[in-house]
């Protein structure tokens, strides 16, 4: 008897384009959301987006509560939950980069409230995903949550954001190549649950982005459009899979470990991009696609070496040899690399000198 079943949860409205920041209130009305919102943001996104959106709400007689977070931690999630309860809000709006959106996502899940995702940077593929990613001591939790009810991505804001945030988003997408390799490997060796549709969507998203690399240039609003569509598509792949597997393999383990060893040294997307060069080499050897990944990253100004990341060579080796422990996710790293092997791959790919 066939007894399989699945829930695929996706946003109802996705609004992308120039000036759509002014449409957040319209989206709220379209979703029939009542009551006060709580805006979850961080300092610069507050200035560029949260305060102007709050002014639109105030003009319509709704006074949003606002909480500003600095880091993605479980303490920040708890703070947002406390403010939401104290201010008696009915829904949340995450306004900012990946961290603000993750915190809003996790808090709204706990509160059993809907949330809207308003990215101010095209820097990560958590914009529409159904996961929140938060470090916790020595490990990393990718927590199941609901995807946003709606996404409002203003390409004017995204194009004005610092260019490296956009290149980080591109690199987060390019890393899908190796994430899917790891997923297929884990399916073959460990029989992990696998979705051909989610894997194909994730790979196709990376291919379309790389094919359009010429359009991705600083100051071009069209770049923000191309990258944001890719970030959404990758997030949808995660929602179809019900896990971050289509977009997160060993290159993400490497990045999560760097977050612990060298906090705030580099952006998430840039770290996973360099990780992807390394793990592509581990999967396929010297003749495989590691050079294509490196060249694609380089063509959009994303880092390809430890130096570019501002991270020391020895930290890269430590991350490579220990990152398999960070979470229970089978990848090409298996039960861990030894130091000689780590130094070998990092040197042969030019990630370290
Ligand atoms: N949930 C998921 O599926 C998912 C997917 C990918 C990444 N992530 C998580 O997202 C985080 C990475 O996101 P990130 O790279 O956006 O980091 P981030 O949220 O820390 O943002 C980077 C910096 O850019 C600033 N910023 C944002 N918009 C700006 C603007 N318009 N102008 C100027 N500055 C602006 C932020 O305030 C922050 O200081 C990581 O914690 C990662 O694990 C989650
Ligand atoms: O589950 P994690 O490893 O946090 O991955 C989510 C996201 O960063 C994928 O691009
Ligand atoms: Zn990522």
TrEMBL record:
Q: Where does NAD(+) bind?
A: 98-102, 120-123, 129
Q: Which domain of life is it from?
A: Archaea
Q: Which GO terms describe its molecular function?
A: glycerol-1-phosphate dehydrogenase [NAD(P)+] activity; metal ion binding
Q: In which pathway does it act?
A: Membrane lipid metabolism; glycerophospholipid metabolism
Q: Where does this one sit in the cell?
A: Cytoplasm
Q: Name one Pfam family in it.
A: Fe-ADH_2
Instruction: Please list the cofactors this protein needs.
Output: Zn(2+)
- Database matches in HAMAP family: G1P_dehydrogenase_A (MF_00497_A)
Q: What is this protein called in UniProt?
A: Glycerol-1-phosphate dehydrogenase [NAD(P)+]
Q: Which organism is it from?
A: Natrinema zhouii
